[in-house]
Model the fold of this input.
Amino acid sequence: MNNGFCIWLTGLSASGKTTIAQGLLRHFENNRHIEAMDGDEIRKGLSRDLGFSKEDRNEHNHRVIFCSKLLARNGVIVVVALISPYRETRAYAKEAISNMMEVFVKAPIDVCIERDPKGLYKRALAGEIKQFTGIDDPYEEPLNADLIVETHKETPEESVNKIIERAKAMGFL
Amino acid sequence: MNNGFCIWLTGLSASGKTTIAQGLLRHFENNRHIEAMDGDEIRKGLSRDLGFSKEDRNEHNHRVIFCSKLLARNGVIVVVALISPYRETRAYAKEAISNMMEVFVKAPIDVCIERDPKGLYKRALAGEIKQFTGIDDPYEEPLNADLIVETHKETPEESVNKIIERAKAMGFL
Done:
C-alpha cells in the first residue's frame, strides 16, 4: 500500500497555487490517488455555513486540515491550495498531518494584482471586499518552508518538478 | 489502484454500529486502506461548532458525506457509523458517494435501551436529552437497504461477514 502525504501550497491570491495544483494532478493522475483541496467544491462540501472573515477562514482551514489528514493517512497524495495566511494555521496543519510539505508559492503582490484573474484585487482595492489578504489583511510569509517556488521567475512545469524532487528528498515519494 | 467504496451503517444508538465498524477495520487493516467515520474524532475535526439538534446533525452528516466521498473516490474503504435517522440524508449520501452500500444495523429499541452502553437512553427517557432518536425523535427505517444485519440475532463476526459478502456481490470487492 502506498503512503500518502500532503503538499500544502500557501501564497497570495493569484500567486499560482491552483495552476500548480492542476499540474500536480496531471502528473500523478495515472499512477497515484491524488486529491486537490481547492476551490468551490471544498467550500460547498465542508463550509457552506462560513464566510470569509478571519474566524471563518480559520474554521474552514481547520476542516480542510482534518479532511487532508484522513486522506493522507490512507495513501492519498493531497494537494492543498489555500492562501492560509497565518503561520499558526500552517503550523497546526503540519502537526495534524503527519507527512506534510509546506510549499511557499511566492510572487510579489504587484504581480498578483496585475494577474488578478478573478478581479478580486480590483474589488479589494476599491473597498468592496474587506479583510483581503495582502491588501487589508496580512500574509505571514513562511519562515521555514520546505520549498519556495517563485512563479514570476519560473514556469508552472518547473515549479511542479521542483515540488516532486523535494517530495522525493523528504522521503514521501 | 484499488477502487474505494463506502459502507454506510445506519441504525439506532446502541444498535451495534461501532462494534461492526471495528470488526470491519480489523478485517481489512493489513491489506486495504480503510477509515471509520465514527465518534468524537470526526465531530471534533469537522463539526466542533455543531450540537445535536436536527439541523446540526444534518449539517454534520453533510460534511461526513463530503469527506467520505473524497476518501471513497481515492481507493479507501470508508465505514460510516452514523445513526443517520432520516431517509433524505441517506438518499443524499447514496447520490453523492458513487459506490455506497446502505446497511441497516437493526435491533429492537427495547434491546438498545437495555444495552445503553453510554447511558444515553436513560438520560433521554429522563428528559435530560431532547430530540433523541427512537425516544422523542423518529428513526426512519430504510425501505431498500442493501443489507440488513440483526444484531440481537447474530454475532458481530456474522454481521461483518455478511457485509463483506454483500460488498463482493455488489462488485465493490
